[in-house]
Design a protein that fits this description.
It is a single chain. The chain has 2 domains: 98 residues, Arc Repressor Mutant, subunit A, CATH 1.10.10; 48 residues, no CATH class. The chain is built from 9 helices and 3 strands, in the order H-H-H-H-H-H-H-H-E-E-E-H. Strands 1-2-3 form a 3-stranded antiparallel β-sheet, with no helix packed on it.
Length: 153
């Protein structure tokens, strides 16, 4: 509605509209940024009023840097033919396959204390690290056997 008021010339600026409505000009600007998202983005959200201001900034930044990649992700989401929660739609839109391939690390705890970690890298490689003194020689041999079974040697 505010975007339409400015687009149709009822107000010359977001600041003028803000003064008239008694709302901060920053808030009006943020709402207009959401309203000006492209239709292919807006239609992915079952309720566009749930789009958060910070999401609009991320999406607009992506439109500036790589609009084709954003369009491609939007097309893939739409092709799924499902309705997702707004946060999930944003997550899928904002994810970049180049940066989403990260190392996944899980801490290994003993008595509530982190004593190591197991991690899977972006290409599927796995590494295991345990601090000195937490794995006996017998446990190390057991771990080797389990890994041999898992890997299939």
């Amino acid at each position: 509605m505010w975007r339409k008021a400015i687009d149709e010339g009822l107000f010359t600026s977001a600041r003028q509209l803000a003064r008239h409505t008694g709302v901060s000009d920053v808030h009006v600007g943020q709402c207009i940024a959401i309203a000006r998202l492209p239709q292919f983005v807006l239609e992915l959200f079952s309720n566009p009023t749930e789009i958060q201001v910070r999401w609009a900034k991320v999406i607009n930044d992506q439109l500036q840097t790589d609009p084709e990649a954003l369009k491609d992700r939007a097309s893939k989401i739409k092709a799924l033919g499902k309705t997702f929660a707004s946060a999930k739609v944003f997550e899928m839109l904002a994810s970049d396959e180049k940066t989403s391939k990260k190392t996944l690390a899980t801490p290994i705890k003993h008595g509530g204390k982190v004593v190591g970690k197991i991690a899977q890298g972006p290409e599927g490689e796995v590494s295991l690290s345990i601090k000195s003194g937490y794995l006996s020689e017998a446990s190390f041999i057991k771990l080797q056997r389990v890994l041999d079974e898992l890997i299939g040697k």
